Here is the input.
Amino acid sequence: MEYSEVITNHTNKSVADTVIAFILNNPATIRVDDYVRWNIVTTDPDDNKFVDCAIWANARFLVSDDKHLRILKKRVPPLVDLKTLQEYHEYLTAKQLSGIRGRRRKKIKNLQKKFAHLKLLPYLCSVN
Here is the structure.
C-alpha cells in the first residue's frame, strides 16, 4: 500500500500502521471499485489509482502535492478538483472561520500562524 510506504518514510512503521488502521476503520471511509480506469496521468501511471478513486467516489477534491497530478488542473471539464495541501488547508481554514467573528476569530488566526510550520497529513479526498 503506497500510503503505508510514504507514512513510514516520514515517521515509522508503527505510526504508519496506526494511520492505515484509522483510515480503514473510519466510518467516513468509502471503499470504491473502479470499473473503468481513466488513465489520465501519463507521466506516472501509478498515480492513476488516486485519480480513479476520487472520480468513482464522486470526491469534491483530490488533495496532493504530487507534480504528476497537476494535469488535473488543465483538464476541461475537470473530473475532480485538485488542491495542494496548502490550498486545502486554506479552504478548511476559511470554512471553519466563516461563522466566527471578533476576538475569537483573531485568536484562532494567531494560533494558526503560530503553528503553520506543522505539516498536515495528506487527505486523499473530501467527499461531497
Residues 13-25 form the longest helix (13 residues). Helices lie at 2-10, 13-25, 48-56, 71-74, 85-97, 102-114.
